[in-house]
Write a structure and sequence with these properties.
The protein is an alpha/beta fold and 276 residues long. It is built from eight helices and eight strands, in the order βαβαβαβαβαβααββα. Helix 1 packs parallel to helix 2.
């Protein structure tokens, strides 16, 4: 990975931090995109100390705001004319519905639309860096639902519906983007980390916290598939797949509904004013 530039969102904690550390250990230049300057800088120093790789950078960005995503993408481009790996990892859990100042439901804005927009803004740089890879941190598709007639969850909001909708959105985005990137040398895949022992578990309802902690795996295990998709020669040229434990798994459920990915893409383009 020496000579490669890798951007990871939400890299100051959890799966993002472990992915950043592992990729830095392999010699890549790692750009951490984090909401908090203080926490981001602390994590950056920790990765440098752990790996001996001084090529670890920080860009501060509130992913819930599209204006900040655009500024962060411009900052990345001002620093680097190449981008070989983009890991769309950052995510939040909210028990109560919130709306950003831009009028977007906050979980949708942070977990899904930010990555849709960021990817579009960086695609030209990635196409100039081929072979290049995009990794979307999602989950398995069983039981996930998305209602395009209530994408903002104005009619009915819950912790599970808000989270599941954005993870399914990332899988649909992966499938559709893969089609559109055919022949470019840029690949895109999604991954399922499993339930991981991270600080995010502190943000979920108490019942889920108890259940999830019983199921939780280590950060290293949770991040292993993201690292694999970002760095392994074994997946060179592979695109449009969902992986778990470094192996492809079936994409099923609502994700296979004809036309759904295309409809979501159009809505996402409208909401972010990104290229259709």
């Amino acid at each position: 990975m020496k000579g490669k530039v890798c951007l990871i969102t939400g890299a100051n904690r959890g799966i993002g931090f472990e992915t950043a550390r592992a990729v830095a250990q392999k010699g890549a230049t790692v750009v951490m995109l984090c909401r908090s300057k203080g926490k981001g800088e602390q994590a950056r120093r920790a990765i440098i100390d752990a790996t001996g790789n001084s090529n670890v950078e920080l860009i501060v960005c509130d992913l819930s705001l599209q204006e900040d995503v655009r500024r962060a993408a411009a900052e990345l481009k001002s620093r680097h004319d190449k981008l070989h790996v983009l890991v769309n990892n950052a995510g939040i859990f909210l028990q109560k519905r919130e709306v950003t100042k831009e009028g977007i439901e906050r979980v949708l804005a942070t977990n899904y639309l930010s990555h849709f927009l960021l990817t579009h803004l960086l695609l030209d740089t990635m196409k100039a860096s081929v072979p290049a890879r995009i990794v979307n941190v999602a989950t398995k598709t069983m039981g996930l639902k998305i209602d395009l007639d209530d994408l903002m969850l104005e009619k009915s909001y819950s912790f599970m519906s808000s989270m599941g909708r954005t993870k399914l959105g990332l899988i649909l985005f992966t499938m559709e983007l893969s089609k559109r990137l055919e022949g470019t040398g840029v690949t895109v895949n999604a991954m399922h980390p499993g339930v991981v022992q991270t600080e995010l578990l502190n943000d979920v309802p108490k019942f889920f916290t108890f259940v999830f902690k019983l199921m939780a795996r280590s950060l290293e295990k949770g991040a292993s598939t993201a690292v694999y998709l970002a760095t392994s020669p074994a997946v060179e040229g592979v695109s449009g797949k969902l992986y778990a434990d470094c192996k492809p798994v079936t994409i099923g459920g609502q994700a296979k509904q004809p036309g759904l990915a295309e409809r979501l893409w159009k809505m996402s383009s409208d909401l972010t004013k990104a290229a259709a």
